[in-house]
Amino acid sequence: MKTKLAASVLSALLYAQGLLGFAGVATILLKDRAHAAVLVDTTVVSAPAR
To answer: Rounded distance, CA 27 to CA 35, Å?
Structure first.
């Protein structure tokens, strides 16, 4: 019985770690994408008109 409980706890911890890792990667990617969009917007706005 203790073995099944320990396996369940470890499985839940591993699952939670995977979710947190995925959330961290998604956050970094979204921040980079938003930062790139801001750079493009400021470049377009500051470009001289022809």
So the answer is: 12
- The string of DSSP codes covering the chain is -HHHHHHHHHHHHHHHHHHHHHHHHHHHHHHHHHHHHHHHHHHHHHSPP-
Of all residues in the chain, the percent with pLDDT exceeding 70 is 66
Residue 34 tokens, joined: 């938003």
pLDDT reported for residue 32: 78
